[in-house]
Write a structure and sequence with these properties.
- The longest helix is centred in the N-terminal third of the chain and has 20 residues.
- The chain is an alpha+beta fold.
- 25% of the residues are buried.
- An eight-stranded antiparallel sheet has the order 1-2-3-4-5-6-7-8, with no helix packed on it. It has a four-stranded antiparallel sheet with strand order 9-13-11-10, covered by helices on one side.
- It has five helices and 20 strands.
Length: 374
């Protein structure tokens, strides 16, 4: 009996010791990042979500908006993942539970960062975010009131973005514009002239009316702009095509729910070939980016997942992705190289990409011209 009691006492002591080594980390932490010649004050707020720990990161010298993430603490080792911007932090918690000294990493660039618990007197204030723009009426049918279309310049890469009430593209072909406006893959467009995929344009356009357009309204305005300035005329057809379908993986999704405005626009901007941070994005948004930029066939979302997510997808592209941009380059055989796209989607997102066949909409071009003058 005494032996049993001694064993129980040891178990209790061991549990007490473990508890003592894992202090409560919820609350605010703050530190300064030295990045790009600037001092960026950084605040990390930690909250409990059941048994898990959630974080909200604020770079208060850049934006008042928080970026959601997750935290784990094991044996004093603290790890934070911020999937929406492809960033992470790893550090060591001191025995007093007041300092975490470690490294913040984004885009492969490690930066030392020491996070400390502030006192009420030393705590930095998070700026109040600006009032969200008033949305455009849902039943409004806007057009671009002002739009300039210029030949693309010598800048590398391409982009389609929205800044406030400006719709901006850089080095986009008419194929890029049509696939974006109608949610298509280039293989769903037929009878196009050669320049459709080669001539590049920079666009800056602003809508008429008041308020911030939603995603559907932006795309409707772009459709009207293409019809007006490129004289695009087409008819639609149906055709069975080989497609990629995004489906749920065996273990279920590994996604972080976005804390951003659910009615806001998604943000998916490549940080390099094979590095895709996403904020406030649906799986449908991911499918559209993969089919427009990465893969050689249409991509459809068959996960059934609703909601918006923050994640970063990292993979090593092959020579057939990104329209053959890596053809002829040696394969990355480093031990720490990211996996291929299909493996990365399973490991990092808990989803799966499968090849299949499906009836798809096809846009058949009847007429198109190079853009008219501004």
């Amino acid at each position: 009996m005494k032996k049993t009691l001694s064993i129980l006492a040891l178990v209790v002591c061991a549990a007490t010791a473990v508890t003592a080594q894992t202090p409560d980390v919820t609350g605010a932490w703050q530190g300064t990042l030295q990045a790009g010649g600037r001092e960026l004050r950084t605040i990390v707020k930690v909250t409990k979500d059941g048994a898990a720990l959630k974080t909200a990161l604020y770079s208060i010298d850049q934006s008042p908006q928080g970026i959601g993430g997750t935290m784990t603490v094991q044996g004093g080792l603290v790890k934070i993942q911020i999937p929406g911007v492809g960033a992470s932090f790893e550090g060591k918690l001191d025995p007093e539970g007041t300092t975490i000294a470690g490294t913040f990493t984004q885009g492969g660039n490690p930066i030392p960062l020491i996070l400390k618990r502030p006192t009420p007197e030393t705590a930095w204030a998070i700026p109040e975010p600006p009032a969200p723009p008033k949305p455009m009426a849902a039943d409004a049918v806007p057009v671009f009131e002002v739009a300039t279309i210029k030949p693309g310049g010598d800048r590398p890469g391409k982009a389609v973005t929205i800044r406030g009430r400006h719709f901006i593209t850089i080095n986009t072909t008419l194929s890029d514009l049509v696939t974006f406006a109608y949610g298509l893959h280039p293989k769903q467009i037929t009878n196009a002239p050669a320049w459709f995929d080669s001539d590049r344009y920079d666009i800056d356009a602003q809508p008429d009316g008041q308020g911030q357009p939603n995603e559907k309204q932006w795309k409707t305005m772009l459709q009207k702009l293409i019809a007006d300035r490129f004289q695009l005329k087409f008819h639609q057809d149906k055709k069975e095509l080989t497609v990629y379908a995004i489906v749920l993986g065996k273990g279920g999704p590994k996604l972080t729910k976005s804390e951003a405005d659910p009615n806001g626009l998604p943000g998916l901007f490549f940080q390099g070939l094979g590095v895709l941070p996403a904020r406030n994005a649906t799986i449908g948004d991911l499918a559209r980016v993969l089919q427009a930029v990465v893969l050689d066939r249409p991509v459809v979302d068959q996960t059934g997942l609703a909601g918006r997510w923050d994640f970063t997808l990292r993979w090593t592209p092959d020579e057939f992705q990104f329209n053959g941009a890596l053809k002829g380059q040696p394969a990355n055989d480093k031990a720490d190289a990211a996996p291929d796209l299909f493996t990365a989607v399973q490991q990092q997102l808990g989803l799966k990409i499968e090849g299949t066949k499906a009836a798809a909409e096809v846009l058949v071009i009847d007429k198109v011209e190079k853009p008219s003058a501004n």
